[in-house]
Design brief:
heterodimer, A: mainly alpha, two-stranded antiparallel ribbon, B: alpha/beta, Rossmann fold, 2 domains, 14 helices, 17 strands
Chain lengths: ~300, ~425
């Protein structure tokens, strides 16, 4: 029983990080109908930004940690908006395949660009937040896990409020529903898209720092696997749906953790992704997604 | 010209420039002996290749300063495999076909040595791996050699150490399924630890290349309450595993093989590895004047960095190869191969090297521990620790390229071999 609860906590903290990334994929898809493959690399840049920011704040303090988190989020926001402005926007009216290929190119450019600048040797991410272990009965929870879960929960609730309680959020939903009609009623498409990229990239930046805190070795290709898994989580939950992305990420986190801790740990990723295939067969639109007819 | 191209071209320019530079570099003189050296200098296993190639360069410069070999200077061509699968065969092909090297030194890890070995064997160019310990590497063919001990020896040393010195009865084994080194060493330990009575493997979860979260596996290990945890992995993973194990409240010591050997291990792991043990090829603390002179030369040349086991092997590999060229009296591949195979009582930094019939070096292993944030020497184990008679016959160790359930079937079919001695390993059929 203790082992089960412990794995539940492990799965929750893993799923929380996937959720922060998955939201970025699903938001961009909801607004622009394309997969931003560079998103995982924005996440990587977030942890590198955190790495350099951490040198200038007192280590192991709450305020220092929050400052690092904020700086990484700000850096990623700037990067995400810049990527959208300079690479995706010029292709807004091009065939969708072009923008998809551009996203893959952007992803590789970021990976190898960072490798060129900082080298590919893994770096040790410093402990930015104070660390301690909490013992609850037979369970051990590290303060990092608590921080990851808490920060993710706060950001998820915050995002939900932004999307459903603000004018800009309403505009986002309108664009997602029908971009042309939204423009007809006076919504500035560019503002909405920029805002979407800013939000998604900020979450990725936070995810990057939280991930690096838990797994303190960062390198230019660290985003690839979490990015792939978050993308899968977004599809699992129903791409375009915010609660769906969070749900999909948690399911993937739990599946990976429980299989990883069982006798079948060799097939950890195979089983986690096999689960995806089963769910896609039973619910082609994802768990919380709705099937829509593509208008031609 | 789209905005996209305008924005990205300046970024691509340095890449294009570097490509042109390498393409139009000066043609090397022909009266030198060319040796290729390929290793992971960057990436996940970067410090292995970094240490190894630096020491090889040091050795070759010394040899050149002393007049070279066969009256010629040696030209060392270094290629980086970036710790990536697939890269090794590409660079080996380039070194052989374009640079026309007479012999190869590399790779530092087993998986990528296996890749390079296939190419070197096909072209019949002698290859000497400084530090690949998986037996399958030299089983590739008769042109493949190594300067280090092999995993069946290393695994036995560690299993004996855990059982006799650490008094462990319950062991957990955590291996990477995507590394030949890790699965091989893990299998040997699993087979050897229960021998001699009392030992038991209580959990053996697996992880994969690129994993950073090991909490699931470690929670399962914790539930099995082992006395010791065997982690045959490379330093980046070991550091994260150690950190997460301590976060989960696991206090059992971790032990591992020469893949731990890197200063970065302690940088990432911090105090999590205190009181843990690993086996390696030599200790820089050895009072041997030969070792001390090497340590001093290396420190003087490379900013005071202490040479690790990979460096010592890179240095030995260079001298071993040049010694063979000198004895062969030519750089003709077949003659060089025969001379390498005939190496006897070569006196290296990492101990006396004898090339056995399977082209593996038989030599001692050193066990180190981590104490007060530093590596500290514990003991040296000589290669003569063959299993005592009267023990149950064990399964022959083999690196299998198949996933476990397939190799289980394959083993069932072809498994009727006698127990191998520690040094000789059944060749792959």
């Amino acid at each position: 029983m203790t082992e089960f609860l412990q794995q539940l906590i492990n799965g929750l903290s893993l799923g929380a990080i996937y959720a922060l990334l998955a939201l970025g994929y699903t938001m961009v898809y909801g607004v622009l109908r394309f997969i931003n493959f560079a998103h995982a690399d924005v996440f990587m840049v977030g942890s590198f930004a955190g790495y350099y920011a951490a040198r200038h704040v007192p280590a192991g303090t709450i305020w220092g940690g929050l400052a690092v988190l904020f700086i990484a989020m700000a850096a990623c926001t700037v990067l995400g908006v810049a990527i959208e402005r300079f690479t995706y926007r010029p292709l807004r009216n091009a065939p969708r395949l072009n923008i998809l290929i551009t996203a893959i190119g952007m992803s590789l450019l970021l990976e190898y660009g960072v490798q060129l600048l900082f080298g590919s040797t893994p770096r040790n991410f410093p402990a930015v937040f104070p660390t301690s272990q909490l013992h609850l009965g037979g369970l051990t929870v590290s303060s990092n896990q608590v921080i990851v879960i808490a920060v993710s929960a706060v950001l998820l609730v915050g995002l939900q409020l932004v999307v459903f309680r603000t004018r800009l959020g309403a505009a986002m939903r309108a664009v997602s529903l029908n971009p042309r009609a939204a423009q007809l009623v006076g919504i500035n498409l560019n503002t909405v898209v920029t805002f979407t990229f800013a939000l998604g990239s900020a979450l990725a930046g936070a995810g990057g720092v939280l991930y690096a805190m838990n797994y303190p070795s960062i390198d230019p290709f660290m985003g690839v696997m979490p990015g792939l898994k978050a993308f899968v989580a977004a599809i699992l939950g129903g791409i375009g749906s915010l609660p769906g992305a969070a749900l999909g990420a948690l399911i993937l986190g739990f599946a990976e953790t429980f299989v990883g801790g069982s006798a079948y740990s060799t097939y950890k990723d195979a089983i986690a992704f096999g689960l995806l295939i089963v769910i896609m067969l039973l619910r082609p639109a994802g768990l919380l997604g709705r099937l829509t007819v593509e208008k031609v | 010209m789209t905005t996209f191209l305008r924005r990205t071209l300046p970024l691509l320019a340095p890449l294009a420039a570097s490509f042109l530079l390498t393409a139009c570099g000066p043609k090397p003189a022909t009266d030198t002996i060319k040796i290729g050296n390929y290793a992971a200098i960057t990436g996940k296993d970067g410090t292995f290749g970094d240490s190894s190639t630096k020491a090889t360069r040091l050795a070759i410069d010394e040899i050149n300063a002393a007049g070279g070999v066969l009256g010629k200077q040696i030209e060392l061509l270094v290629e980086d495999t970036q710790s990536k699968p697939g890269e090794a065969s590409t660079v080996v092909k380039k070194l052989i076909t374009r640079d026309k090297v007479v012999a190869l030194i590399g790779e530092v890890t087993s998986s990528r040595s296996l890749e390079g070995a296939g190419v070197a064997q096909a072209f019949k160019i002698p290859m000497l791996s400084p530090s690949a310990t998986n037996p399958a590497v030299t089983a590739t063919g008769d042109y493949i050699f190594r300067a280090c001990f092999i995993d069946p020896f290393q695994g036995s040393v560690l299993a004996t150490f855990a059982r006799d010195k650490l008094q462990a009865r319950r062991a957990a084994v955590l291996t990477s399924i995507s590394s030949a080194y890790s699965t091989g060493l893990g299998e040997v330990f699993t087979a050897r630890f229960p021998l001699g009575g009392g030992g038991e493997i209580v959990a053996s979860p697996k992880f994969a290349e690129g994993d950073k979260d090991f909490k699931a596996q470690l929670t399962a290990i914790k539930a099995a309450s082992p006395d010791v945890i065997f982690v045959p992995a490379y330093y980046t993973e070991v550091a994260l595993i150690a950190k997460q194990a301590r976060e989960l409240g696991i206090t059992a010591p971790l032990i591992g093989g020469d893949g731990w050997e890197a200063p970065e291990l302690l940088e990432i792991a911090g105090s999590a590895l205190e009181g843990c043990y690993y086996s390696t090829h030599y200790s820089a603390e050895s009072p041997d004047p030969k070792v001390q002179s090497f340590v001093k030369k290396y420190r003087d040349r490379f900013d005071g960095r202490t040479p690790d086991g990979m460096a010592a092997l890179g240095y030995d590999a260079a001298y071993l190869l040049v010694d063979a060229i000198r004895r062969a009296g030519s750089t003709e591949p077949a003659a060089l191969r025969a001379a390498l195979a005939a190496t006897k009582a070569f006196d290296g930094i990492t101990g006396r090297i004898d090339m056995d019939a399977d082209r593996n070096a038989s030599k001692p292993a050193a066990i180190l521990t981590i104490k007060d944030g530093k590596f500290a020497y514990v003991e040296t184990v000589s290669p003569l620790i063959a299993p005592k008679s009267g023990q149950p016959p064990c399964r022959p160790f083999r690196y299998s390229p198949f996933p476990p359930f397939v190799s289980f079937v394959v083993k069932k079919i072809r498994l009727r071999h006698p127990c191998p001695s520690v040094q000789s390993v059944v060749k792959r059929t």
